[in-house]
Amino acid sequence: MRRQHLSREDRASLRDAIGTEPHILAWAAGVDGVVVATGEWLAHLNAGWRAWPWEQVLSGGWRPDPGVLYWRTVDGGGECRFEAPGDLPAVFRERVLASTLLSATMDLDGGSLTLTARRKPGGSGLATWLASASGRVNLEDPETAARVVAWTDDLRAEYGF
User: Fold this and answer.
1) Average pLDDT of 97-121?
2) Fold adopted by 8-98
3) Where are the domains of the chain?
4) CA-CA to 5 of 20 to 30 Å: which in 11, 61, 91, 144?
């Protein structure tokens, strides 16, 4: 069986979008465009490329019925339906896990607060800390914001990143 490749045109436009030659780990064409997983990026082609470094992909996964890969990023998210996703769901999961150093959740009145430390897969240096809230927890509330800062400082000191 001959392995299909991303078209030359799509590969060139992806290279332009991410600024480097893509090392493609998996890709699939679906109803809602093309999704590519590289060593350092998740990219979605649908009326132009949108690309996120893995450390900015907060969560996501594969829903086998109806065959949807979905993701949530620091600036929104997306999804794409596939009939034949190949290795893309497994590679997606591995890359998200590879970029996650720590995730901790604190229950609060009306919801929860999650802090996640992320870094480029295989990278070194300081981590990027991201806060997310669920339920009625509001990150813009001064008391919640102060709690996020204090908790981040505590975790950073404890884990050293």
Assistant:
1) 93
2) PH-domain like (2.30.29)
3) 8-98, 100-159
4) 61
